Amino acid sequence: MRVLGIDPGLTRCGLGVVDGRAGRASMVAVGVVRTPADAEPAQRLIFLETELGAWMDRFSPEVVAVERVFADTNVTSVMTTAHATAIALLTAGKRGIPVVFHTPTEVKAAVTGSGRADKAQVTVMVTRILKLAEAPRPADAADALALAICHLWRGAATARLEALARAGAR
Question: Strand ranges (DSSP E) for the chain?
């Protein structure tokens, strides 16, 4: 399975493409989209859509895994993250690619074993799991890879269990 992990953000949006299955993963690509800081918000969102679309077209993911936005005291930050999340949904939806959401705690638990891990621990484990020569930088890129790994290891299994449950209910 090929998963595109997206760590949404209007200033920096982390992207990571991973191939694999539960217990095995290999990195295909990693990067960060940086929107022009001096552009109007609408132009930044258009830029983000173009870049995300290019990644989806180039790497043909079977699913897109996005970090679920959580409430914070900084409403402005939450809103811009939500805008970037909407662009990820829109871009994948236009291509017929399913989108799944994973919470930060779920992602941390999947890659480190602890839902309370810090960013440094997540980056170390992503580097180990994917057998990378060096840690992905910046943290947004490592977070995107962690999202993809999380979906490979947890989301795919959850989807199989849900399909079995639906089949058994018939």
Answer: 2-7, 12-21, 24-34, 63-67, 99-102
